[in-house]
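Escalation from tier 1.

The customer reports that the assembly of two entities below gives different structure tokens on two consecutive runs. Tier 1 could not reproduce it. I'm attaching the input and our single run for tier 2 to review.
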Amino acid sequence: MLAKRIIPCLDVKDGETVKGTNFVNLRSAGDPVELGKAYSEQGADELAFLDITASHEGRKTFTEMVTRVAATVNIPFTVGGGIGELRDVDRLLCAGADKVSVNSAALRRPELIDEITNHFGSQVCVVAIDARQDDSGHWTCYLNGGRVPTERSLFEWAHEVQERGAGEILFTSMNHDGVKAGFANQALRRLSDELSIPIIASGGAGCMEHFRDVFVEGHADAALAASVFHFGEISIPELKHYLQTEGITIRQ
Amino acid sequence: MKVAIVKYNAGNIYSVVHALKRLGVEPVVTDDVTTLRSADRVLFPGQGEASQAMGYLREHGLDVVIRSLKQPVLGICIGQQLMCRHSEEGNTDCLDIFPVDVLKFQPVRHEDKVPHMGWNEIRTAKNGNWTLEDGSFVYFVHSFYVPVCEFTTATTDYIVPFSAALHRDNFYATQFHPEKSGAVGERILQSFLEL
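Tier 1 run:
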């Protein structure tokens, strides 16, 4: 059985790992390369490094850090933040990243997804979607790290992303992110059941039961979290042991 | 020890370079025939499309070279598939080191997503002379697979049981990526170096 994946996410700014609550109030959590290595040794299945301020300030992702990660870490990792064109993807893959995640640039110019998958294959292309649910239940996609709303609805965009050849979707619920009350399992389940590509759940992890729920109720293929891991609230070995006792296929 | 990595038009070769460096080996990435022939170990890794990869290998005479190598050779991912007889990907004739045909995954249920991507379990089919740990999880990314055959040394079950690893004479191959499979993968690479 294919194992469900646990992915610590390292949000990077100025070479430091940071994590905000609802995308603001950043707290520092150390050197991303060292932290990534520690997570891989603890049993993380993949790592994600996101340059969270890149699309906001127009900065490019830290290629040098990616090179260091590739030399140090022996599990797959995804790099995102500020990827606007094919040249950025090429640079990051050459530096050793296994996958890239695109977000705002794909919403602004969806053809970018086709270009990446045609040149490098679907498996390298993760499309990250930040969306917020309004009081009427409608999910709207946001640009620039959740700062700018778009006209796109989550499900319509997710289908288009798949049609264009993306390998995976990383869905962050802005309603749940940083709140630590569980993942957006209803929306995740709909995404997972309607689409044929893997769905990575992000936003809302607060305790180990939330990870069980996102796999059992949300039908997610992978779960991504940051602060619960960075600040030691959940340890990856304990989490994986717990999930296994709950009957979920996990790599031990 | 001289370790050579076959240089061709496939992606993701450098993660194998990094993995070998972590094991204390400085590999050369080369398409030079003399260097490949004189190496103690040859790795044939990569990700890519079969017909384009075979086209490149033929154009550069590397198909003949790889087939004729006498030292231990390890194919990884597309490398394993190219070492087979034929691939359904681009209807491509391959190196025919393993006389078996590569097929595309045909999903049966909604959960059968293609590519097969992520960590899955290997079952060792027979005791080869290299370390494949029964029940360990390793990292896969692929849409095509090698069916179970007489050269299969480990299997994985995804939609169908397929060959996670192959061995014939001095030729070894894995469908998974040992260079991305954590400590388990490092032990597999180490054991290949120690053959």
